[in-house]
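lol forgot to send this yesterday, sorry. struct tokens for the thing we talked abt
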């Protein structure tokens, strides 16, 4: 009988347990690091991963428990994968087990060796897409220069800064081809699920003889496991996925592409609040493979890194075919009829422009980043509004199913026939969403073929693909949508993009609101005139009360560089990222007083640390969600190492506060928060 050894195993323990590192277990076999095992934890049997850390000696009188089983049918997870997970857990202040097990398909955690063997046999059903040999277009001069500069950069991260329609996708298709020719695997990240199918199609056309798999939350558990196994075992040559795919184990990593790298969707907003873009850059350094970040509107953090020379900047300012960027015009709401400016989403100049496109048989896109029919219902007699009883937010009126729906907690009711407070039957919608905008367009332009794309219309499986297919086929004259339609789509027939009600972000308390608005408007503008033959007459119309705002003036000339320079200068003066480093500690409790009391107690434990400032707790902008009160406390440091040292020493002490504050429901830390 072999001698028992001690293994370090990470498990997914609850965050409040304060269990952050690996646990020690006995085993008759010295399983290599990265092996999945079943181990006892309390009264439960859970999945764990053997970790490349020295197992700690048990305290006197403590008997170690044995590993119950090992999933030895599966090759161990690579050492670099374990290093990536350890870094993510350390940097984002979460337990190693939570990050590690969260990166493994849930289906895999429930399998034994016999069940896994059956799944591995079924991997043979995955096959390359097949089809005719691809025809590769000749690269434009700018693409050729960018590709050569990327090749010469080696493993240094590269920022591909190209205008919308400049052919950035072609650059990284060729970068992937180089990677595959070298016998390596490529990982391509996209910000949202709805961009995955069209990208998958383009890759299938270019690489018909290569196995391509996707990884995103829209897959069934069985599909996700199958695709993950194909990547882990080296069978898949190309992996396309959303932010979760950054943790995909690859035995031959050769390239990581982050498309639309500026997109906030790459930052997780729950659990381990990691940034997939930042982890992709770290993973490239770890595995010595190039990382290509692509965007027409790079994040200011990435732009700052390129300015400092840490990233190679590849510039492609010209559109494919020599098409010009659309002309940006502003409709000044101060100078249109009062009724149109205050009560209607569609001003006469905008309707006239839409009518011209209809006459010429061209397509238009109307962007309003708010779904539903109206943000609130209002009683003219007593002032009642459709507030959510469980949140400090309004319930949105959805006319299609006559419901009032809270977009934060999901609470839904039928629209009342009369005001619940005074009985007045005249309750009216205030403001507008995409549903109401579509209705107004149908009334104003009765001959137009309309379509709407937002989270409400694309819930059903295949609904998004069907609507996009109609748009590409020319069966739609005017597409109404939220930000879902503003990025990544190649609508060849669109010559007009209209933006309704973008002003709210101009005066937000969130310091990143302007950056997000500029990116959204630049991306939306990029949907117009993508066909070079129509580019010269393509337009962007923005309805605004503030046409002279500096953000809009930069948009007028498509001058991202000027906008970035002004924003970085402002942030340097204010001491904001990327010139400073932040963390937010959030507390949720039954009352606002209890949430803030816990944060004040946490602040008292912080003491004083050189170069680190802990600000007083304040309520969050959305103070109550699902009957839970929320508060936050900002931690700021001039240097990233100082912030990390402070958090590592401070946060473990906060677990002991829970017993003193019974009303506390949960707390979490968000390192490098996107919104404050």
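and heres what i got for the seq, position by position
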């Amino acid at each position: 009988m072999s001698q028992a050894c001690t293994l370090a195993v990470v498990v997914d323990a609850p965050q409040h347990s304060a269990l952050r590192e690996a646990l020690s277990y006995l085993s008759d076999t010295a399983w290599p690091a990265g092996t999945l095992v079943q181990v006892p934890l309390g009264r439960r049997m859970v999945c764990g991963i053997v970790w490349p850390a020295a197992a700690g000696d048990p305290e006197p009188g403590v008997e170690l428990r044995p590993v119950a089983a090992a999933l030895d049918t599966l090759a161990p997870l690579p050492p670099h994968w374990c290093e990536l997970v350890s870094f993510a857990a350390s940097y984002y202040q979460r337990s190693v087990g939570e990050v590690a097990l969260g990166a493994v398909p849930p289906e895999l955690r429930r399998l034994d060796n016999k069940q896994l063997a059956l799944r591995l046999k079924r991997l043979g059903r995955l096959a390359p897409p097949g089809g005719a040999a691809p025809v590769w277009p000749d690269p434009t001069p700018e693409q050729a220069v960018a590709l050569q500069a990327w090749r010469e950069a080696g493993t240094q991260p590269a920022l591909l800064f190209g205008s919308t329609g400049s052919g950035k996708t072609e650059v990284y298709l060729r970068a992937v081809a180089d990677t595959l020719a070298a016998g390596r695997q490529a990982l391509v990240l996209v910000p949202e699920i709805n961009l995955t199918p069209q990208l998958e199609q383009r890759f299938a056309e270019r690489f018909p003889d290569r196995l391509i798999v996707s990884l995103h939350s829209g897959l069934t558990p069985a599909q996700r496991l199958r695709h993950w196994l194909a990547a882990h075992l080296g069978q898949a040559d190309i992996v396309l996925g959303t932010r979760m795919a950054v943790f995909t184990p690859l035995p031959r990593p050769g390239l990581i592409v982050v498309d639309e790298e500026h997109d906030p969707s790459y930052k997780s907003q729950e659990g381990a609040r990691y940034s997939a873009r930042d982890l992709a850059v770290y993973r490239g350094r770890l595995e010595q493979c190039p990382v290509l970040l692509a965007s027409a509107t790079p994040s200011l953090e990435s732009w700052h890194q390129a300015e400092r020379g840490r990233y190679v900047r590849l510039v492609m300012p010209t559109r494919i075919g020599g098409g010009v960027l659309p002309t940006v015009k502003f409709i000044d709401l101060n100078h249109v009829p009062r009724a149109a400016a205050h009560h209607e989403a569609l001003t006469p100049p905008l309707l006239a422009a839409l009518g011209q496109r209809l006459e010429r048989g061209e397509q238009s896109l109307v962007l309003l980043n708010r779904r539903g029919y109206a943000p609130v219902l209002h009683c003219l007699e007593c002032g009642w509004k459709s507030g959510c009883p469980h949140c400090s937010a309004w319930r949105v009126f959805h006319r299609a199913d006559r419901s009032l729906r809270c977009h934060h907690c999901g609470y839904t009711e039928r629209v009342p026939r009369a005001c619940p407070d005074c009985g007045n039957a005249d309750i009216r919608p205030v403001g507008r969403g995409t549903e109401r905008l579509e209705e107004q367009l149908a009334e104003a332009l009765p001959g137009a073929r309309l379509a709407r794309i937002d989270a409400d219309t694309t819930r059903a499986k295949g609904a998004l693909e069907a609507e996009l297919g109609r748009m590409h086929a020319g069966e739609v004259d005017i597409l109404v949508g939220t930000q879902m339609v503003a990025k990544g789509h190649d609508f060849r027939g669109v010559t007009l993009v209209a933006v309704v009600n973008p002003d709210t972000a101009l005066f937000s308390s969130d310091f990143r609101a302007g950056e997000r608005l500029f990116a959204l408007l630049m991306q939306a503008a990029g949907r117009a005139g993508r066909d070079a033959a129509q580019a010269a007459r393509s337009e962007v119309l923005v309805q605004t009360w503030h046409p002279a705002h500096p953000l809009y003036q930069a948009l007028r000339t498509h001058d991202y560089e000027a906008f970035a320079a002004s924003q970085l200068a402002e942030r340097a003066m204010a001491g904001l990222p990327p010139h400073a480093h932040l963390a937010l500690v959030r507390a949720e409790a039954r009352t606002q007083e209890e949430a803030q009391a816990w944060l004040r107690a946490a602040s008292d434990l912080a003491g004083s640390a050189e170069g680190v400032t802990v600000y007083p707790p304040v309520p969050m902008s959305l103070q109550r969600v699902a009957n839970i009160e929320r508060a936050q406390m900002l931690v700021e440091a001039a240097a990233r190492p100082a912030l990390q040292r402070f958090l590592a020493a401070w946060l473990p002490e906060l677990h002991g506060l829970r017993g003193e504050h019974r009303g506390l429901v949960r707390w979490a830390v968000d390192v490098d928060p996107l919104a404050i």
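The two ends are 59 Å apart (CA to CA). anyway ping me if u want another try
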